[in-house]
Amino acid sequence: MRTRTKPLLREWEWQAGAACRGMDSSVFFSPPGERGPARREREEAARAICRGCPVSGPCGRFARESRQYYGTWGGRTEGERRSRELTPERRARPATAR
Questions:
Q1: Is 35 helix (H, G, I), strand (E, B) or coil?
Q2: Which of 16, 42, 45, 73 has the fewest Cβ atoms surrounding its Cβ within 10 A?
């Protein structure tokens, strides 16, 4: 029996170069009840890390393709990803065209 270990590892390789690797995930994910200025400040701190990250593109694609509903991924918050998915032109297209 052969496994797909090496190809599977290549699919996740981008994570090794992530600026957030080893960081506390609380920078990227909001605690329960976080609102207002505290949330905006935390999200901006996460975006600042993502701006300097060499793998923010693959990270953002991963979040979009795997439908990560929470957290900041590739410099985009859950609200930003959701609003991008719900733009009028995306809503107008049939699901099969996506």
A1: coil
A2: 16
Q: Smallest Cα–Cα separation from 40: which of 84, 13, 79?
A: 79
The torsion angle over the Cα atoms of residues 88, 90, 93 and 98, rounded to 10 degrees, is 180
d(Cα 92, Cα 73) in Å, to the nearest integer?
26
Quickly list H helices, 15-77.
36-51, 56-65
Every domain of the chain and the residues it spans:
24-97
Q: What is the pTM of this model?
A: 0.74
- Cβ atoms 21, 15 nearer than 8 A: yes
List the chain pLDDT tens, one digit each, 98 residues: 555 555 566 778 889 999 999 999 999 999 999 999 999 999 999 999 999 999 999 999 999 989 999 999 999 999 898 887 665 555 455 555 44
